[in-house]
Design brief:
Length: about 400
């Protein structure tokens, strides 16, 4: 397609900007939530619209797609659940008193964060609010969820006797500059993580390593121990708000309003790569098949070699900011505030990348083999020296 190749398909059904794009777990469908107050369901097999969800009284801020159900939240203060096959609205979750800007589905729970300064937990099936998390001094922007079984030792769990009913925890990031960790069963705040001096825009959780990463308008990323609440590291090199995060193999990628993405080694805090070329804020990130994809306020998506930082491809065609990207079956999907969903063929760069990775692994193998032979030779020389010295 060349450096500015056109999309293989442009979907123009929405009458307003697309704020979010969600891929189903089985990869068969995509869901878009729009400024026009509707959500649309798309097949990844043919990129055709197969569902139109109408009912919200204001714009949709965020959406989430399961295999059989879709969820949308809106500036009309509600969340809706939809049947994927029929398009029927199955449930309306009411209770928030301002814009609902984020939802998260985990197990039988539906979590939501709002400009009304609260997060809430709902029963997915019973259309009922289970818990309200109140304590932030400003709006809740981002959510994460985990179970204490994933992070707490047995003796630590015994200390939390009152939480034995449910070991689920919710993490919330807010414009009040704090991150809070809550017990889902009681609504009690377990930890308040203090350190940011700006709004917390994004969270990413690494439960097996007991770590949480938060990005902020204070230009920093901070790492926290989610059991003790201790701040572990501060990543400080960005010159603008940190908008999005992606964690892959102990490498942390951060997209910023300073028009760059940076890659950090989580274990040391070292910044090992900076990805330039964006002409506006980096709004979204996705690491796929050894390639780093970005979406930007300059209306372009880009593909980078994560190791070298070399720009491999630019996807041009959108007119406004790209708000979200998804990847499935060597197709890149980009959703923009221009109201279009665009589909791009990435088979070429995926193939080139596979060849590159194969060469790198082969070179590493030869280097490792040389190292092994060198160690064997040195061991033999050492033994000979010892024998000559009578040791």
């Amino acid at each position: 397609m060349g450096n500015g190749g056109s999309a293989v398909k442009v979907c123009t059904d929405h009458q307003g900007g697309i704020n979010w794009l969600s891929l189903s777990p089985d990869g068969q469908r995509l869901l878009t939530g729009s400024e026009d107050g509707t959500a649309r369901l798309w097949s990844t097999a043919d990129s055709q619209c197969h569902g139109h969800f109408q009912g919200h009284e204001s714009y949709i801020t965020f959406c989430h797609l399961e295999n059989e159900a879709a969820f949308t939240c809106s500036a009309d203060h509600t969340i809706r659940k939809w049947d994927v096959m029929t398009g029927q609205c199955l449930a309306i979750y009411r209770g928030h008193t301002s814009i609902v800007n984020r939802i998260l589905v985990a197990k039988d729970y539906l979590f939501s964060g709002s400009y009304d300064r609260t997060a809430r937990c709902w029963s997915v099936d019973k259309e009922k609010q289970i818990q309200e998390f109140r304590g932030h001094r400003n709006c809740v922007l981002t959510l994460a969820h985990y179970s204490s079984r994933d992070v707490l030792e047995e003796e630590e769990e015994e200390e939390e006797e009152e939480e034995k009913v449910s070991r689920d925890l919710l993490v919330t990031g807010s414009t009040d500059c704090t991150v809070k960790v809550w017990w889902v069963s009681s609504g009690r705040c377990y930890q308040t993580l203090l350190g940011h001096t700006g709004a917390v825009l994004c969270l990413i959780l690494d439960a097996p390593n007991r770590e949480l990463f938060s990005g902020s308008t204070d230009y920093t990323i901070r790492t926290w121990n989610i059991v003790t609440g201790e701040q572990l590291k501060v990543f400080k090199e960005h010159q603008g708000s940190v908008i999005c995060l992606e964690l892959v193999n102990r490498h942390l990628y951060s997209g910023s309003a300073d028009r760059t993405v940076k890659c950090w080694l989580v274990d040391t805090g070292e910044r090992i790569q900076t990805y330039k070329a964006h002409k506006h804020s980096v709004s979204t990130l996705k690491y796929h098949a050894g390639i780093l994809f970005t979406g930007s306020g300059d209306a372009c998506a880009r593909a980078f070699n994560p190791k070298s930082g070399v720009l491999q491809k630019i996807f041009r065609g959108h007119k406004f900011i790209i708000n979200c990207i998804q990847i499935h079956n060597e197709l890149l999907y980009t959703a923009s505030h221009d109201g279009t969903l665009r589909v791009w063929d990435i088979r070429g760069i995926c193939k080139r990348n596979k060849r590159r990775l194969k060469k790198e692994r082969s070179a590493q193998g030869r280097s490792s083999q040389k190292g092994s032979l060198s160690r064997l030779f040195n061991n033999k020389v050492g033994c000979m020296v010892q024998q000559e010295n009578g040791e």
